[in-house]
Amino acid sequence: MPLQVSDYSWQQTKTAVFLSLPLKGVCVRDADVFCTENYLKVNFPPFLFEAFLYAPIDDASSKAKIGNDTVVFTLYKKEAAMWETLSLTGVNKEMLQKIREKSILQAQERAKEAIEAKAAAKREDQKYTLDAMMKIEEEERKKIEDMKESERIKATKELEAWKECQRKAEEQKRIQREEKLHQKETQMEEERKNLKHKSLPRNSSRYLATEGIMITLIFSGKVSPFGETSFSFQWLHKQAEARRAMNTDIPELCDLKEEEKNPEWLKDKGNKLFATENYLAAINAYNLAIRLNNKIPLLYLNRAACHLKLKNLHKAIEDSSKALELLTPPVTDNANARMKAHVRRGTAFCQLELYVEGLQDYEAALKIDPSNKIIQNDAEKIRTVIQGTELKS
């Protein structure tokens, strides 16, 4: 049974009531104050103070100050008048209980309304923030897409012009080769005609060597002396056509020079294009090099860097993973390449907001190069983002 406090003091004006209530040595944080327009309660075990106020007050503007083992209330009256007493008198316990219950219900309703209003305001703020972020992201995405499209068109035109130039050069070479072959065939035809008029013994043989090919001429009474030679020229022509048809499985190679069919040359070409920020053209060079040799890890690693620049994040992850797959076993010679692959894949993960996966790659890079300050700082930033996300959740 709590002990009722009766040694309080109060004063009033027409508009306010000033109530001073001793806490009797109880810690301030243990005091529980409850106030409505008709009811005031202060609970500080084992003591209890209750007041069923003489007239309604404005509980929203009323104040309580706790300090020096005392609670001082400033209660503002709803109607300006002098009270005869602080608390109602001559009221039975049943009526007081109803006032108490009604006050508690009113307080609960106001608390519920305040919570709902706060939640509604929070939802509105979140909606506004989300709309603003989506608008900004859409503008950025549109800007990036326009830039990518412009770069793609520019790179495509440059590549088409380059391919057209190479095609014309190759076509010129092909015409020159055909003319040279035609000249040789004409020369050999003249030699055949000259030999036709020479007298040769029956059942004899002669060997004619032309460009390393041995042609046997067998003469008899029924067989044409130069039938074999004519057949061999047709075979040579077919061989030339077959050589021209080589590399047709890779159409891009048909119009390239011999040095341009070298993956290392294409890799260097892609690196130079990357240095000039022509990322789409660099990707095209790396793509062709990979078609020629798909076992060179630096091709995938460099193409991943291009995809990062163009925000092709999933492709950057794929290429970094392929580079790491090829950079096995892990040895000192490929340590730098493995570190770059982890950092680029980790960067792509973080830009996709997959911070845990990104941190794993940065930590793997730190195992390879523990003294790298830049990677250390980036890893610490990612940890901070992860911790902030967890706290927010």
Description of the molecule:
This protein has 393 residues and is α+β, with helices and mostly antiparallel strands. It has 3 domains: 3-90, Immunoglobulin-like, CATH 2.60.40.790; 167-251, no CATH class; 275-392, Serine Threonine Protein Phosphatase 5, Tetratricopeptide repeat (Alpha Horseshoe), CATH 1.25.40. Helices cover 58% and strands 13% of the residues. The chain has helices at 93-196, 227-244, 263-275, 279-292, 297-309, 313-326, 335-351, 355-368, 373-392; strands at 3-4, 9-12, 16-22, 32-35, 39-44, 47-52, 63-67, 70-76, 205-210, 213-218. The strands form 3 sheets. It has a 4-stranded mixed β-sheet with strand order 1-6-5-4, with helices on one face. Strands 2-3-8-7 form a 4-stranded antiparallel β-sheet, with no helix packed on it. Strands 9-10 form a two-stranded antiparallel sheet. The longest helix has 104 residues, at 93-196. The two termini are 43 Å apart. Mean pLDDT is 82; it is low at 198-233 and 242-249.
Let me know the largest β-sheet: 4 strands, mixed
Q: Would you identify the regions where 5 or more consecutive residues have pLDDT less than 50? A: 198-233, 242-249
| Share of helical residues | 55-70%
Please count the helical segments. 9
Which structural category fits the helices and strands?
Answer: alpha+beta
CATH topology name of the largest domain? Serine Threonine Protein Phosphatase 5, Tetratricopeptide repeat
CATH superfamily of the largest domain, called what?
Tetratricopeptide repeat domain
Strand proportion? 5-15%
The coarse overall form would be: rod-shaped
Q: What would CATH call the class of the largest domain?
A: Mainly Alpha
Radius of gyration: 47 Å
Strand order, sheet with most strands? 1-6-5-4
Number of domains: 3
Quick check: average pLDDT? 82
Total beta strand runs: 10
**Helix and strand pattern:** EEEEEEEEHEEHHHHHHHH
Second-tier CATH architecture of the largest domain: Alpha Horseshoe
Distance between the termini: 43 Å
